[in-house]
Amino acid sequence: MSGRASVAPQHLLQPEVLASLSNLDLVARAVAEGFLNGLHRSPFFGFSQEFAEYRAYSEGDDPRFVDWNVYARTERTYIKRYIGETNTHLVLLLDASASMAYGTGSVSRLQYGKFLAATLAYLAGRQHDAVGLIIFDEDVREHRRPSSRAGHLQGVFHAIDRAEPGAGTDIDAPFERFREFEKGRGLVAVISDFYCDPEALLKGVQPLAYQGQDVILFQLLDPEELDPQLKESALFEDMETQETMEVSPIFMRTRYRERIDTHIDALKTAAVGIGADHTLVNIAAPLNEALKDYLTFRQRRG
To answer: Which of 35-39, 138-142, 147-151 has the lowest mean pLDDT?
Structure first.
């Protein structure tokens, strides 16, 4: 019995398991609860026990609000956090362009992006943060302003669930919409394959950073893109332009590897240059590493 319990949280984070669940609300709840349970007695205890209720004690806090029961179990000092204390906005920017339909395993990039976006929204909801959403391809297809009102989170889930692969990508479109409507400081999570010019990304994100937004970029790539296993020459078609190109195994092992590594490094450099975070996500991997990166990002940004 104890053996099964120890592997259950990790099992629930597997993309192929999530793909079998009936709806996105259930996916988000299963991933979040499995992940938070897995963080129990970890440095992220404040997220894993009662996500909306605790924060680490710091000098000057009123000791009357220390939870001594938590201290007895963990030897860590936490303050009870009350509803509305954070007043943080999280806006999710989800890429639903045609290229996001790609996937060689149990889920596509877009499906994985939906799982991640829904889970981040669920975690933010438990933190009593206001959650917003922008879904885009070459234009903004859906925009929900940040809110923590009752029922709003379900609307965000439904909007994410409805997203289907669309047309090409204009990476500046969601940032233009964001700058037009979102004025307060907060957190911005961009979920995309980022097949774009790093300079264009820099141009779009930089004004958000200057506005005081804290930005994290989740770059979703298929394992075949990260470590191609092509055995013979094949014809590849661009999912957005329909252009074709014949490639050989030698090309994939050499020049392609160099190009994809260069692109990823350029995105990381662009992110660092504007004070944003960049996380590379393999869509065959469980969601836990991406979620850990997100919580680290949140803690560091305060």
So the answer is: 35-39
Q: Radius of gyration of the chain from Cα atoms? A: 20
Report the pLDDT averaged over residues 159-164. 95
Q: How many Å is the maximal CA-CA distance in the chain?
A: 69
Residue 5: predicted pLDDT: 34
The answer to whether residues 267 and 198 touch, using CB atoms and an 8 Å cutoff, is yes
Contact (Cβ atoms closer than 8 angstroms) between residue 109 and residue 223: no
What's the pLDDT tens digit per position in 199-240? Answer: 888 888 888 888 889 999 999 999 988 887 666 565 555 555
Q: Which two tokens stand for residue 281?
A: 């996500």
Asked whether residue 51 carries a pLDDT value surpassing 50, the answer given is no
Count Cβ neighbours within 10 Å for each residue of 134-162 and write b for 16 or more, e otherwise.
bbbbeebbebbebebeeebbeebbebbee
Angle made by CA atoms 8, 10, 13, in degrees to the nearest 5: 110
Q: Among residues 187, 262, 184, which one has the least CA distance to residue 218? A: 187
The angle subtended at Cα 128 by Cα 122 and Cα 130, nearest 5°, is 80
Contacts 24+ apart (CB under 8 A), 49-53: 51/123, 51/126, 51/127, 52/81, 52/83, 52/126, 52/127, 52/128, 53/80, 53/81
The more confidently predicted of residues 132 and 18 is 132
- Asked whether the beta carbons of 245 and 235 are under 8 A apart, the reply is yes
Per DSSP, the residues of 236-247 read: EE-TTT--EEEE
Strands 89-95 and 130-136: parallel
pTM comes to: 0.79
